Amino acid sequence: MEWIACHSLFRSRFQTQLLTVFAAVVLALAAVGIYGVVGYSVNQRRHEIGIRLALGARQRDILKMIVLQGMGLATTGVVIGLAGAFALTRLMKDLLFGVNASDPLTFGVIALILTLIALLACYFAARRATKVDPLVAMRHE
Questions:
Q1: What is the pLDDT of residues 76-96, one digit of tens each?
Q2: What is the model's pTM?
Q3: d(Cα 62, Cα 75) in Å, to the nearest integer?
Q4: Distance (Å, rounded) from C-alpha 106 to C-alpha 111?
Q5: Cα–Cα distances in Å, from 84 out to 25, 70, 102, 107, 113?
């Protein structure tokens, strides 16, 4: 009976494990993508950041500005993603065991994880922005 029960759930377990691997890869790609977009934005605004630093802005202020702007975009993305995921829960009902497809705790935890990863990516890109030398940034253009 154990063998029959194990083999009857094999396909569902394999699909779940495959989805877990894909989710981890997507999470890593999202972190790299957010870092890349915020890093590109910082690179495009290097002259502005240099002027702000030359006029007396503290590194903490630059860090806060970049992180808040990046998190605004990330929060918008998380909200849109949650709405899309909630709309597509009907497709996932067959793959879930012991969890409701629209479980609020699961949605909350995933939103929190995505927000924390976005925060880390924005923070590291913003740290790079605080290292801009005002003289070099102003000479660059």
A1: 999 999 899 888 887 777 766
A2: 0.75
A3: 20
A4: 8
A5: 19, 21, 12, 11, 17
